[in-house]
Every structure is written in structure tokens, then in C-alpha cells.
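Lab notes, practical 5.
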Amino acid sequence: MKNAIQVSRMRAGLLALFVALLLPACRGPLSPEITENDLKYHLGILSSDALEGRMTGTPAMQRTMDYIEKAYRKAGLHPFFPDYRMPFTFRDGMEARGVNRITIDGQSITTVPLPFAAPGRIESRLVDGGFCLPAHKGVDELAAIENEKGAGFLEGKILICRRHGPDGERGERTYRNLISFQSKYENAKRFKPAALLFLKGKGDELRTEQLREEASSSAPRAAFTSEDDIVLAAAKQNAEAVLEIDFAALERTGYNLGASLRPIAPGQRIIYLGGHYDHLGHGLPGSSMGPMGPIYNGADDNASGTTLILELAAAMKAKLNADAAYLPADVNVVFLNFDAEERGLFGSSRFVESAAFDPTSTIAMINVDMVGRLRQSRGLFIQGMDTADPSLKRIVEEAYAASVHGLYSDEERPEARWMKGGLGPSDHASFYRKKVPVVFLFTGSHGEYHRPEDDYPLINFKGLYALTTLSEQIIRRLAFAPPPVFQQVKEEPKRNDFDFKVRLGIIPGSYDTGMPGLLVGGVVEGAPIGRTGIKDGDIIVEIGTQKIRDIHDLMRFLNDARTGISYPVKWIRNGVTMEARTELMSVDD
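Output from the prediction step:
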């Protein structure tokens, strides 16, 4: 009988074979029109386990590129780059080299180098620094050690730092910005230790190749080990140790993909429709909201945007072939798929710096990122209207009325939410920095964002169809109108303006699912819900239209809720039902 790993590999191989059989001709029930069936077909493949989360630089990403390229070829689009591909390199992460270990009393323990300072060899005594947290709630652990042992005691030592904080990884909100390796490292520097050695505790193992290389020549150096018990026992004795650290920056190669409706020619005016096609693979430290190991298929982020681009590219090409007047003769549309967005907008930033991009011939750039979860409760985020003169917003408003409005009743229709600025958290920001008008379409975050649960069954294909037709309407109206004139934005949004996460602002008093509602254990200071009069001991039974029986019902509500909206809330106090209205708050507030 095969073990679980063999079975898993067999399944992955069969899925890879399935996708490989589809790739050569992109066979399928595809239509020259925009259809939900086509969208389901493309998104089903792009979010399949066979593509293993579309991590930059992996064999699965090669299969993803093959699929997109063949879709463009089959639709008859022209390569915007040679063979539709633009390779680019970027420095991201680091790799261990040579010897990485700590030796204590002749016992050698493997370590993972952390890139806070240059590689090197340190020989010194071990000191237990506790959690090594910055001062909080009147407590300063490292200063207390020096007060007890004498000023300068930590200087030149190898400082041991436990994982997380006194309340663990998910402890109270006070510690969330204090428990990172970076925060502890910066705190410890003031005491001039020779090195910091972080312990695994209850956290994940680290993968060296996914850490950012940011070494400076200054001390202290840093490393990570999972041998907590051995190291702590040695630190208790202030044992001598030798810590050896060696690593180098890791250079990666990514590939942007591009296709155009017409061959590129001098004098053309270009409209770009783009979105990233990479995701998190089996998890990316610093980005993943879930555990390392499972496949992060990224159906919404951003198989949805990639699907929209592929479907619209084929449909617009068929319409242009049927009617040359479909677009003005001097206008071309370029479809772009950016790599390495999840690692820091590398693909789009490399593109706008390349010879392939000319901002003076660009009419505008439309970016579609996470467009698969259109909900009436969240609306459609549209950013960039103030990156050009008022004609840009008029064009988008008219396009919205001609597409989304006709597909939804007044009661069901998601409203357009106009966001300030041009530097949103996606690839359009690279174009805005080059003084190009931008339009960013985004259906909002959700509880599955950057988690393995962001999968095909949760996609709203009616909404994706609506946004595909909206994108076509925007492109054609831009093509036939005078080009919008770029303007610098006066105010940029914060990340939390896009509602990446919202919260009610209460501290649950119990997670017991046997209660008639959710017990309030406290109210976060400054939370809007505090103005309702809710207090400790009350039991919340309803918010919005969601009945609240336990914490899980509240999370279901928050997944689709948003800031800036007043929601009715009901609670019970001493057997009496009370009611008021409240807004929500961002997790960053």
C-alpha cells in the first residue's frame, strides 16, 4: 500500500497530465463571445492543483505560461514580446551557503541564517533574552537584564530570543507589531550583542530561500534554530558557543506575458489591460495567511483577473476580425500578464522600465486584480479616476451603466466604490508612477485572501462576466474618446481603505457555541460599536441580516462586510433585546 506522500504525488502527476493534454491546442467549449462558460473553463484550469499555486520560477509556473501563451495563439493575438514572453530578473530572498550552525560543547546544531547583517563567525557566551520584545506595558526585558547583570552585559554576547510574545502568536493586539523577528532585532541592537539566535517555539519552520536578503555590514548577525531545548539549557549556563552564518542573495527570473490585437506599429495609441498571474505556490512567508505546505490556488487572486484578460482578448480579437471599425485604426489593445506581483510588483515595475513600454503613446492602463468575488454587500472598488481629467470618470461611469447595470436588478446591483489615488496595492501603481492614467478594478478582500481556501467554488461567475463586459466597455470608450489627460493625485488611500480586513470592535467573552448568541467580553477602545452602548456581558444575536449564534457566524458576516456602512445590530441584556446601528473598523485602526 502506497503511503500518503506517494498518493499525493500520484494525484499531482495525474492533474499535471490532465492540464498538459489541454495545453497543446487549448481545446474546450470556448466561444468567440464573452461567456460564463468560457470563464469557468479558463479559471478551472488556472486555479487547479496541477498548477500548484502558480509560484514564480517553478515548473508549475512554466505550465501556466504555456497555457496562457497557447490561449493567445489560438485566439490569433500577436506576440507583444518575442514568443509572448518578457524575461526579467530580480533579487528576492537569499540562499544559505557554506556552513550554518551553532556549536555548543562540541555539539553541532544546524541553523537557518537570517539576512539582517553580513555573514560571519561569532564566538561568545549565550544569554537568554526572553522574548527580546521592545518595551511594552512598562516592561523592557533586555534593559532589565542589564540592570541586574550590569551595564554592557549583553554587548558582544549571542542573545537567545524566544518566538512570539507572552500571549503567543495570536495573542492580544498589543503584541502584534512587536513579535516579528525584525522588531526584536531592531530592539536588541541598542545593547550591541554580537548575534541573535531566534527559537522556533510554536511557529513555522523557516525556508531560507524565501527570506528577503537585506544584509548590512553592521552587527549583530542573526540566525534561527528549531533546537529550543538544547539552546535554552546552554543559555541558562551562559555556555560558550560558536555561531557560523553564511548566505548570499538569491536572484530569480520571472516572465511577463503579452499579446496585442494588432501588430505593434509606429504611431499607434495603446490601451493596456493587465493583471498578475502569479500566486503563493505552497505558501510564501510574509504573504500567506495560512500554513506552509498546502496549495494556494488563488482562484480569486489572481486567476480571476487572468481569466478575464484571456476571455476578453479572444472576444475582442474575434470582433475586430469581423469588423475593422470595432476599434479606431490607430488604437491597439495590449493584454499583459505580470509575474512576481506577490513578491513586490516586480513584473509590472520591470515592464514600465523596459524599451517595450512608451508612456507617451499610452492612453491608459486598466488593472484587474481579484475580480472574482463581486458582492452587493461590498460593491466594486474602482480606483484611478483622479489620475486624469474628469473625462476618465465619465467614461468609466458610462461603461458601468452599459454593462453591470443591465445585468443586475436595483436590489442586487453592486455599487461602484470610487477610491482615491493611483498607488493602490497592485500593478497599476507601476504605470501611475510613469504618469499614465490608470483604472483599477477590485471586488474586495475576503476571509480566503492569501489562504488555501481561495478556490474555484467561491468564484462569482456572473460577477466575473459583468466585469469582463465592463472592461470591454471601458476599453472601447477610451479608444473612441480624446485621450484623458494625466494628473497627479492629491491624496492616496491607505491599504485598509480597500477593506482587506474589517472587525466589529468587540472582544468575545466566550467561544462557546452552546450560547444563544455571542457573549461580549469587552469593547475595543475607539471602536464605533462602543457608541451603541454595548458593554461586557451583553449577548450579540444579530448584525446586518446575519443571525449571530457564535463566533463563526460573526466571521461569516465580516467576510462580506465593509467599512463606511451603518449596520443594524441587536443584543440581549438581562433578557431584554436592544437595537442600534454601528459601523465597522479596519484591523489597522
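Observations recorded by the TA: The chain is about 25% helix and 25% strand. The radius of gyration is 27 Å.
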